[in-house]
C-alpha cells in the first residue's frame, strides 16, 4: 500500500471517529435535557396540585384563604357580612301599643248594681201619692241606669208597669257621686183606684232583668198602694222624674 493511500484511509477513520463521538455526545446531551424537562414538568405539576383554589377557601366565615389574600379576604368578609345580616329581624317588638285599651275600659260604663250604689225612697207632697226613688253611685266607675225600676211592695206578686211617655232619649249614666231618679205613683189621687193596701217594705230592681234588689226604707207607717200604681223611667233630674 502506498503512503498516500495509507494517509487517506487514516484520515477517513479519524473523521468517522470524530463524527461518532459527536453523535454520542449530542445524544447524551439530548437525553440529559429530556430528563431535566421531565423533572421540571413534574415539579411544576406537583406545585400546582398543592395550591388551594380561591373558590374553595372563600366559603367560611373566618376568611381562611391565606394562600391567596386578594381573593380569600374579600370573599371571607362578604360571607361574614351575609351571615351577620340575619340579626336584623327583631323590629317587631313594638306591638305592645295597646295601652289605650285600659283608658277605654276605665271610662266604660257598667249597669248600676246595689253593691255600688245607695238607694232611698222618699214620699213627696207634690204631686200627690208619689214616691221618689234616688240612686247614687258610690263606686269608682261610671254606671248606667237603663230602662225603669222594677218595684215590689210588701207581698205583691207583680211589678207595676212603666209610663211609656217618660222614656228618656238616652240611657242615664252616673259618674261616681252622681244620682239618678224615678218616681212611683202609689195610688190614684181621686181615690178611684181599687185593691188598695198598706206596704211597709220595698224592693227596687234597677231594671226588669236585674237579679239583685236594693231595699230602701219606707216611712214607719208604710205607704198606701192601689192598682193605679205605675213608675217612670230613670231620669237624670228629680224634676223630670216627678213629672209623671
Q: Give the N-to-C terminal Cα separation.
A: 180 Å
The average pLDDT is: 73
What overall geometry do the principal axes of the alpha carbons give?
A: elongated
Q: What topology, given as strand order, has the largest sheet?
A: 2-3-7-11
Total domains, how many? 2
Strand content: 15-25%
Radius of gyration: 59 Å
Helix content: 25-40%
* Count of discrete alpha- or pi-helical segments spanning 4 or more residues: 5
Largest sheet: 4 strands, antiparallel
Structural class by sheet pairing and helices: alpha+beta
Order of helices and strands: HHHHEEEEEEEEEEEH
Number of strand segments: 11
List segments where confidence is low: pLDDT < 50 over at least 5 consecutive residues: 25-30, 32-103
